[in-house]
């Protein structure tokens, strides 16, 4: 098993962990960096992993610092490959957040 950190290391925002094990690659969260002048620039940078290679996303909760880059992930890969797993209420909130961020009515 390999675990890579792409956010939250040495800070408290932008949660994003890549887990690779047994031919499965998934993210734990895909959050926006918040606060500071560099946040918008950091959120627009390309992912440090291949988004198309992600099998699913485990969303811990729907706060923007844990879910805010899901629309970007969906745009950079096949939207059908971005599935959320978690507690029912968190998945429901994540789906609402994702639909609003993606521009759905």
3D architecture notes:
- The chain starts with a strand and ends with a helix.
- By secondary structure, it is α/β, with parallel strands linked by helices.
- Strand 3 (24-28), helix 1 and strand 4 (56-58) form a beta-alpha-beta unit.
- The protein has a five-stranded mixed sheet.
- The protein has helices at residues 39-44, 64-67, 70-76, 88-101, and strands at 2-5, 17-21, 24-28, 56-58, 84-85.
- The chain is 30% helix and 18% strand.
- The chain contains four helices and five strands, in the order βββαβααβα.
Which features does this protein show?
globular, Metallo-beta-lactamase, Chain A, 5 strands, alpha/beta, 105 residues, 30% helix, 18% strand, 5-stranded mixed sheet
Helix and strand arrangement:
Elements: E1 2-5, E2 17-21, E3 24-28, H1 39-44, E4 56-58, H2 64-67, H3 70-76, E5 84-85, H4 88-101
Parallel strand pairs: 3-4, 4-5
Antiparallel strand pairs: 1-2, 2-3
Poorly predicted ranges (pLDDT <50, ≥5 residues)?
none
Number of strands: 5
Structural class: alpha/beta
Hey, roughly how much beta strand do the residues contain? 15-25%
- Estimate nothing, just give the exact number of structural domains: 1
Distance between the termini: 40 Å
How is this structure best summarized?
The protein has 105 residues and is an alpha/beta fold. The chain has 4 helices and 5 strands; from the N terminus they run βββαβααβα. It has a single domain, classed as 4-Layer Sandwich (Metallo-beta-lactamase, Chain A).
């Amino acid at each position: 098993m390999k675990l890579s950190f792409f956010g939250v290391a040495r800070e408290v925002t932008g949660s994003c962990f890549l887990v690779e094990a047994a031919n499965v690659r998934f993210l734990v969260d895909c959050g926006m960096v918040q606060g500071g002048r560099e946040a918008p620039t950091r959120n627009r940078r390309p992912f440090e992993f291949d988004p198309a290679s992600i099998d699913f996303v485990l969303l811990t909760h729907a706060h923007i610092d844990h879910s805010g880059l899901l629309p970007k992930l969906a745009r950079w890969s096949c939207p059908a490959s971005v599935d959320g797993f978690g507690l029912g209420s968190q998945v429901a909130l994540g789906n609402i957040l994702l639909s609003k961020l993606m521009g759905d009515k």
